[in-house]
Amino acid sequence: MRLNRNAILLAAALSFAGSFAQPAAAATEIQFWHAFTGPLGEILAKQVEGFNASESDYQVVAVYKGNYSEALNAGVAAFRAKQQPHILQVFEVGTATMMAAKGAVNPVFEVMKAGGETFDPAVYLPTVTGYYTDLEGNMLSMPYNSSTPVLYYNKEAFQAAGLDPESPPKTWQEFGAALDALQASGSVCPFTTTWQSWVHLENFSAWHNVPFATQANGFGGLDTTLVFNGPTQVRHIQQLGDWARDGKFVYGGRRNESGARFNSGECAMLTESSAGYASIKAQTEFDFGVSSLPYWDDADGAPQNTIIGGASLWVLTGHPQEEYEGVAKFFSYLSSPEVQAEWHQQTGYLPITHAAYDLTKEQGFYEQNPGTETALIQMTAKAPTENSKGVRLGSFDQIRGIIDEELEAVWAGTKSAQEALDSAVERGNVLLRRFERANN
Amino acid sequence: MEKRVVFRSSPLPYLLVLPQLAVTAVFFLWPASQALYQSLLIEDPFGLSTEFVWFENFENLFADPLYIGSFWTTAYFSAAVTALSLGLALLLAVMADRVVKGAMTYKTLLIWPYAVAPAIAGVLWLFLFNPSIGLVAYYLKIVGYNWNHVLNGGEAMLLVVIAAAWKQVSYNFLFFLAGLQAIPKSLIEAAAIDGAGPVRRFWTIVFPLLSPTTFFLLVVNLVYAFFDTFGIIHAVTKGGPGKATEILVYKVYSDGFVGLDLGGSAAQSVILMAIVVGLTVIQFRFIERRVHY
After folding, report:
1. Which residues in chain B touch residue A251, judged by CB atoms under 8 angstroms apart?
2. Cα angle for residues B93, B80, B238 (degrees, 5° grid)
3. Which residues from chain A sit within 8 angstroms of residue B45, using beta carbons?
4. Is the domain of A395 the same as that of A250?
5. Which residue of A has its CA nearest to B42?
6. Could you give all domains of chain B from N- to C-terminal order, each with its CATH number?
7. Number of structural domains, chain A?
8. Do B150 and A101 touch (CB under 8 A)?
9. Residue A40 and residue A165 in one domain
10. What is the CATH number of the domain that holds A162?
11. Is residue A136 part of a domain?
């Protein structure tokens, strides 16, 4: 058992050494629970280090708590046990859950005011903050990582199919023609998508200016009902279903599994988050292009604007006031143009302030990396309407699960688009009523 | 008539079982009672507003055709896992029992998969059958079968059943082998002298004498299929496609931890608890009578 004992000694020595690496006791600790690993986790750690180095009174301690669902769960469980962190990263589908939890959340606009930080909501990009703002215009959480879906396409596959690699399809009609050409050229997977509900129903609805749910997609209150089974959405899903039947659209999974099939060159076109840019660039060996999400050009009001996905930072209640001053300082640091611009350029997530957007332009980033501005143009080209501010629904994570299940039935050819969307709406509404009741 | 030996009561035995009782109370009785209480509430995730609703959560569940569907999925899944893992393990044990040369190596190799965590076992099989990168899926495509468990519910079910059964075969194998070795050789030899062939000897002597082991394994395997397979389902299919592989325990997780519907999820776990208790009681009361010890 000698080896074991050595291992234990080593572990003890390491943890002892580790305890010295912790911030000195004089500074107040701010707990920040997040859901980032890998390259994103490293960039986050760098931001936190940058803040801690600039600050002597407060030290932010970033703790990885698993994926988005797990981090939210950890936060909820910790709150019930009165061990909650100061800051919790919550994905966009958890927004309604957090907003409804009035006693658990310390709204960001109040945190900033009480913390004595200068806070002007006008410096933020409205299409980003709108998702996290209440009807009175108060910002409730701090947008952190926000992205929007765009179209990636393989330029070499386009060339092989006799398509112009510099003019990607702008509309779904042109898209259909491109699929035909790609298939004729021998492509086994002309098109695939990630996050099907987010791209092809939530963003699709906003992009075509049709409602996803009543009460301004849930912004107006908890008594919202799903209405994404309208003719515009049904037509689109039916078209995708037909493409799936003909082998032009290949379904790869509910999250971003399909990204690998685009990166490997198997699939020629991919709809994926703008934040996928960094990994696509790192993993592809061919020339690819980024273009805005296609739209049906015979639909009224299209293209409108797309909406965001990603996560924001929520401040939880139950800590002494002076600790919230540290939270406010950290948020000010995160919103600074330099930090934001760097974040935007490294990850493909959207900048949250106008200043960071302008700084990135000045630095010539968009010229050096063509396609990276697509997401921003797509989001900010028009002022958002009631249908395109975002989607705010209770139990949204589960509703997305229901949508995934129903869409899979369409791709498998066992249900028509109308049947599947009707059923998804009906099943989702049951959850919405339950959520309304639990939060009243 | 039974003879009972009655010991004079003294506090010592109670004292000795106290640690075990304490562990049971803290890790089972207390959480179970919490679940019972929670199942009568409709509550927001943070516990800020709570409504006591008696049995409404249960009524909702049984009015939900998807929940009833999950029952059937579970029944089908556990029956398939149990039958497959027991059958394979018995076959392997009978063969390993006969091997003379290198017996130890075979046995060790057969026991290995048991040391693999369910989630890892799931990922392993997922890699083999992944429609995009899986080796088996690739070979299937060559022989003309387009494997895609991401969309095909039957294939997804088959995959999780194989993964779950594969992991359990080792455990069953170990017990079957021990059971086989406990059968007196004289009985088998006597049958052989009487002219019974190997198949006949197996079905009339070995199999009935193995029944206590088989019975024990049946209980263990059913409980395994009901609960421990969570990791496999989570890693391989996440209950999909559609609801094709959403067994009861996975639905508890997805409603409670993804949907944050604590009341509904607690009600489901109460039902699950009742099912397992019921199954075990039935097995011991009715099936055990037919077991030869």
Report:
1. 150-151
2. 120
3. 76, 97, 101
4. yes
5. A438
6. 53-290 (1.10.3720.10)
7. 2
8. no
9. no
10. 3.40.190.10
11. yes
Determine whether the interchain pair A398/B49 forms a contact, defined as Cβ–Cβ distance below 8 Å. Answer: no
Identify which of A244, A217, A213 has the alpha carbon closest to the alpha carbon of residue A230.
A213
Instruction: Give residues with Cβ within 8 angstroms of A292, minimum separation 6.
Output: A150, A151, A170, A303, A374, A377, A378
Question: Are both A280 and A317 inside the same structural domain?
Answer: no
Reported ipTM exceeds the 0.90 cut: no
Judged by a CB distance cut-off of 8 A, whether residue A436 touches chain B is no
Chain A residues in contact with B255 by the CB 8 A cut-off are: 398
Residue of B nearest to A260 (CA): B132
In terms of domains, do A385 and A252 share one?
Answer: yes
- Tell whether B242 lies on the interface with A, counting CB pairs under 8 A: yes
Based on the fold, state whether residues A288 and A386 are members of the same structural domain. yes
Q: Write the CB contacts of A184 (distance below 8 Å, at least 6 apart in sequence).
A: A161
Distance from CA of A260 to the nearest CA of B (A): 9
Residue B257 to residue A440, Cβ atoms within 8 A = no
Query: Hey, what's the torsion of the CAs at A416, A418, A420, A426, to 10 degrees?
Result: -160
- Each residue's pLDDT expressed in tens, for chain A with a length of 440 residues: 344 444 444 444 444 444 444 444 568 999 999 999 888 899 999 999 999 999 889 999 999 999 888 899 999 999 989 999 999 999 998 998 898 888 899 999 999 998 888 888 888 888 888 889 887 888 999 999 999 999 999 999 999 999 999 999 999 999 999 999 999 999 999 999 999 999 999 999 999 999 999 999 999 889 999 999 999 999 999 999 999 999 999 998 888 888 888 999 999 999 999 988 888 888 899 999 999 999 999 998 889 999 999 999 999 999 999 999 999 999 999 999 999 999 999 888 999 899 999 999 999 999 988 888 999 999 888 888 899 989 999 889 889 989 999 999 999 999 999 999 999 999 999 999 988 988 87
The answer to whether the Cα torsion of B127, B130, B132, B137 is positive or negative is positive
Q: How many Å apart are CA A415 and CA B68, to the nearest integer?
A: 21
- Nearest-CA distance B242 → chain A (Å): 4
